[in-house]
Design a protein that fits this description.
Elements (H helix, E strand, L loop, with lengths): L21 H13 L2 H8 L3 H15 L4 E3 L4 E3 L1 H45 L1 H16 L8 E7 L2 E7 L6 E6 L13 H11 L2 E5 L11 H14 L9 E5 L1 H15 L7 E5 L14 H10 L22 E6 L5 H13 L4 E6 L14 H14 L12
Parallel strand pairs: 5-6, 5-7, 7-8, 8-9, 9-10
Antiparallel strand pairs: 1-2, 3-4, 4-6
Helix pairs in contact: 1-2, 1-3, 1-4, 2-3, 4-5, 4-9, 6-11, 7-8
Length: about 400
C-alpha cells in the first residue's frame, strides 16, 4: 500500500501506522477462513502481495504472529484463533450497520431512478423533476471538513474549484455523472471534495451543458474548454488529471480522444469511477439508460469515435485507473472497455470492489470500500513513470 496523502482522513480513522483499520481485520478473516493467501486475495479483489502486506501490518500493530506460513500451508496461531473469535462479531455488526444505511440510501436511489425513467415518458416536466431529485440526492451527501469552494469561469464555462483548503491551483478536472441529462458542479461538491481531500489537489468541476437541450457534442466542447483553461494556468500537462464518474467517465474518454484529434497535450493520468462508456449500445437494451443516452446522441452518426469509444484508437490516452463495483450495472461495459484498451497497448489499472452501489465513491463518509478507493486514486496520482507507488490491478 502506498503512503497515504496528507490531509483529512475520509473516515476519521487514524492511519495504519497508528491503529488497526477494518481492512486489516477483513484481510485477516479472509485468510483465516480460506487458509490460503491466493484464494483470500481473489475473494477480496486485491493482489496477493497487497494482502500479505496487510497481514504483516496487522501482526506488527498487534505485536505477535497470527498466522504460520509455509510453502504448502497456512494455519492460525493461538493468538490468531483468539483474534478471529473476537473479530467475527465486530465485522458482522459493522456489515449490519452498512447494510442498514445502504437500504436507506437505496430508497432514495429508487425514487431518483423512477424520475429518471420519466424523462422520456413525461417530457419536459419529467426532466425537470428528475434533475431536481438528482440535486436533492447529492445534497444529502456530506462535504469533507475544510473544503473550500470558489466559482470560476473556465474559458466561459461556469465551474467550481473544490479544494482542500485555500490556495492550491486546480490540477484535477472532474466530469460529473448524471446520464448527460442531469447533475451540476454545485451538486457534485461532496464527491469533488472527497477527491480533493484524498489527493490533496484542487478539483475543477465544470457545469458542462446537458441534453436534451444541448446534445452531443456540447458536453465534449465544454469539457475541452475547461481543460484548455487548466492548460492556460501554466501547469505542466503531466501534472494534470482528468477524472469522471458514471456518464462523466465516458465523457472523460471522449474528451481525451478529442485532445488527441486536436493534437493537444494529454494529462499525465486519468481516473474513471464506475464509468458508463457505451452510449451507442448501452446495457439494458431499451431500458431507461438507453433512453437517457438517446437524448444525448440524437441523430449523430454512431460511427463517430468520440461517441462510440469502443471503435476508437485508445492507445493515444494516458495511463488509466478504472474502478468499479462487482455488482455495478456498468461492470460489463467497463470490463469490455478495459480489455479493449489493454488490447491496444494502453496502460490500464483496473480495481474491483465488493459493492453493488453505482458510483459507490459518493458514500465515502461511511463506506470503507469508498474511502479505500479514493486513497487508491491518490496513490495512482502519485505514481512515477514506472508505476512503483501504486498497486497493479
Amino acid at each position: 500500500m502506498s503512503e497515504r496523502p496528507a490531509g483529512p482522513r475520509l473516515l476519521g480513522m487514524p492511519s495504519a501506522a497508528d491503529a488497526i483499520e477494518l481492512k486489516h481485520l477483513r484481510a485477516f478473516v479472509a485468510v483465516a477462513d480460506e487458509l490460503n493467501f491466493s484464494r483470500a486475495a481473489n475473494r477480496l479483489f486485491v493482489s496477493q502481495p497487497a494482502l500479505s502486506r496487510q497481514i504483516k501490518a496487522l501482526e506488527s500493530l498487534i505485536g505477535c504472529q497470527l498466522l504460520r506460513r509455509s510453502t504448502h500451508r497456512v494455519e492460525l496461531t493461538l493468538a490468531g484463533e483468539a483474534l478471529l473469535g473476537a473479530t467475527l462479531p465486530l465485522l458482522s455488526d459493522m456489515d449490519d450497520a452498512i447494510a442498514l444505511t445502504r437500504s436507506v440510501g437505496g430508497e432514495v436511489n429508487a425514487r431518483v431512478t423512477l424520475l429518471w425513467n420519466s424523462v422520456v415518458e413525461d417530457g419536459a416536466n419529467g426532466l425537470a423533476a428528475m434533475r431536481e431529485a438528482f440535486e436533492a440526492f447529492n445534497a444529502q451527501l456530506p462535504i469533507p471538513e475544510g473544503t473550500v469552494v470558489r466559482p470560476v469561469q473556465a474559458d466561459g464555462v461556469s465551474s467550481l474549484v473544490v479544494a482542500p483548503g485555500q490556495g492550491p491551483r486546480p490540477t484535477v478536472l472532474h466530469l460529473h455523472g448524471g446520464g448527460y441529462i442531469a447533475g451540476s458542479a454545485f451538486g457534485y461538491r461532496p464527491l469533488a471534495g472527497a477527491l480533493a481531500a484524498a489527493t490533496g489537489a484542487a478539483v475543477l468541476v465544470p457545469d458542462y451543458r446537458l441534453a436534451p437541450e444541448h446534445p452531443f457534442p456540447a458536453a465534449v466542447d465544454d469539457a475541452l474548454r475547461a481543460y484548455r483553461w487548466l492548460l492556460g494556468q501554466g501547469t505542466d500537462p503531466e501534472q494534470l488529471t482528468i477524472t469522471g464518474d458514471s456518464a462523466g467517465g465516458g465523457l472523460a474518454v471522449s474528451l481525451m480522444l478529442r485532445l488527441a484529434k486536436e493534437r493537444l497535450p494529454q494529462p499525465g493520468r486519468a481516473v474513471l469511477l464506475c464509468p458508463a462508456l457505451d452510449v451507442v449500445n448501452p446495457p439494458g437494451g431499451d431500458g431507461p439508460v438507453a433512453r437517457w443516452f438517446s437524448l444525448y446522441v440524437r441523430d449523430h452518426p454512431a460511427t463517430d469515435p468520440l461517441l462510440n469509444i469502443f471503435e476508437a484508437d485508445l492507445s493515444v490516452l494516458p495511463p488509466l485507473l478504472v474502478q468499479c463495483g462487482t455488482e455495478d450495472v456498468t461492470l460489463p461495459e467497463t470490463r469490455r472497455f478495459v480489455d479493449h484498451a489493454r488490447g491496444q497497448g494502453l496502460d490500464v489499472r483496473f480495481d474491483l470492489y465488493p459493492v453493488s452501489t453505482h458510483v459507490f465513491h459518493l458514500f465515502w463518509s461511511f463506506l470503507p470500500e469508498a474511502a479505500d478507493a479514493l486513497e487508491q486514486v491518490a496513490g495512482f496520482l502519485r505514481t512515477d513513470e514506472n508505476g512503483s507507488a501504486a498497486e497493479a490491478g
